[in-house]
Amino acid sequence: MPSQEIKDKYELVVGLEVHVQLLTKSKMYASDSTEFGNLPNSNISVITLGHPGTLPKVNKRAVEFAMKLGLACKSEITRNNIFARKNYFYPDLPKGYQLTQDKNPVCVGGTVAITLEKSGVTRDIELTRIHMEEDAGKSMHLAGEVDTLVDYNRAGVPLLEIVTEPCIRASEEAYQFMSEIRKLVRYLDICDGNMEEGSMRCDANISIRLKGETELGKKVEVKNMNSFRNVARAIEHEFDRQIDMMEKGETIISETRTFDATTGLTAGMRTKEDLNDYRYFPEPDLSPVVISEDWLESIKASMPSLPRELHERFVTVFGLPEYDANVLTDSKEIALYFEELCSETNNYKAASNWMMGPVKSYLNELTLHIEDFPVRPKQLASLIALIDEGKVNFSVASQKVYPEMIKNPSQTPLEIAQKLNLIQESDEGSLKPIVESVLAENEAKVAEYKSGKKGLLGMFMGQVMKKSKGKADPKVANKILTELLEN
């Protein structure tokens, strides 16, 4: 590994190619099912397999999903979309070519804003294009088997490929870009972003150059990465490996490499020079897809609130810290639940604390989604109001009232608190005898307090809460305690 002094001489240059598998029920050019997990080679037809005489047809929903992502990324939407054949021969590509977009992608340009965790700096990652294409099948190399098995279920599943400019300069930027893309596609309901199942995949084009140089170096493409962290690790390893080669006077060759998550190393697969020309040409069996003004406007009207918009609203309108806003906008469903909760209460910080604390703990413990959460925003707002009004404290609310609300969502927090006899006693006339009794039973401690041990106030408060069975209003009890001790 090169020293930091040597690394500081070089600049990392990365461009990402992110594939997202679309949540359509049928394939990009055929009506076959896209359901994941079915028996191998059961989601296929003569169109998917490219039999002679068959004709493909473009999936309208996939085009609409592409338009949504393009609008979210501020891309220019191409009105006249032509598809092309990308010719290459591989076992998992049954037709011997892939239907994709070559010269005129559906989305041109655009940006994705990222925020770096370490520095808090926000910057735009520039996009080259977003284009529509179909997925290939899946080759399987089973242990002990000589032959390669191929499952064509995935062949023809709609994909969007998001290609960035070579503008990424650190592994953290790549990590945050991937996170933002996953967040976007989930908010748009166009992809589940599940890297483990292959519905979101990433290839990284990595090169280095001396700082101050403008010409790009020879790029290495790293494939087979199944997590954001592995993308970052592969970039870091390639940066070090290429610097070592440059320092030794070796030539970096343009090649495709694979990443081993166990060792954290990359290994060569094939050189770019050895690849056959894809020989793109317009697909003769597909008519151009024309996006009309009315169609585009209808998609614009259907766009949901996006994570950056909600984040801005949570910080500027609701006054939340950046951390809270980041956590709450990580999931679309959580963000929308919180937004509805804030329409029922003005105590936005308390609402945030409940969402990030008790609510998320309950969901995580039972691996549930917010849709399965039995307490609706209006009920949770009523519980927050109960605390704000001094009728119960947070401890009682979270440990006794809240669990009962989950069991009996039809009951209001006030009804539950009354039924369990948990309403706080706030009347000074009722609380004063309890406080006097505690002080009378602890005369020695009172003397110590008067001699300067002010930290004993907490002990007295604990005794008051115990004697009142937790029903004493802490603010009122503390006021009475302080007055009696000081006088």
TrEMBL record:
It comes from the Bacteria. Residues 336-485 form the Asn/Gln amidotransferase domain. It catalyses: L-aspartyl-tRNA(Asn) + L-glutamine + ATP + H2O = L-asparaginyl-tRNA(Asn) + L-glutamate + ADP + phosphate + 2 H(+); L-glutamyl-tRNA(Gln) + L-glutamine + ATP + H2O = L-glutaminyl-tRNA(Gln) + L-glutamate + ADP + phosphate + H(+). InterPro entries: Asn/Gln-tRNA_amidoTrfase_suB/E, Asn/Gln-tRNA_Trfase_suB/E_cat, Asn/Gln_amidotransferase, Asn/Gln_tRNA_amidoTrase-B-like, GatB, GatB_C_1, GatB_Yqey_C_2, Gln-tRNA_amidoTrfase_suB_CS. GO terms for molecular function: asparaginyl-tRNA synthase (glutamine-hydrolyzing) activity; ATP binding; glutaminyl-tRNA synthase (glutamine-hydrolyzing) activity; transferase activity. Keywords: ATP-binding, Ligase, Nucleotide-binding, Protein biosynthesis, Transferase. Allows the formation of correctly charged Asn-tRNA(Asn) or Gln-tRNA(Gln) through the transamidation of misacylated Asp-tRNA(Asn) or Glu-tRNA(Gln) in organisms which lack either or both of asparaginyl-tRNA or glutaminyl-tRNA synthetases. The reaction takes place in the presence of glutamine and ATP through an activated phospho-Asp-tRNA(Asn) or phospho-Glu-tRNA(Gln). Heterotrimer of A, B and C subunits. Belongs to the GatB/GatE family. GatB subfamily. This is Aspartyl/glutamyl-tRNA(Asn/Gln) amidotransferase subunit B. It comes from Echinicola soli. The gene is gatB.
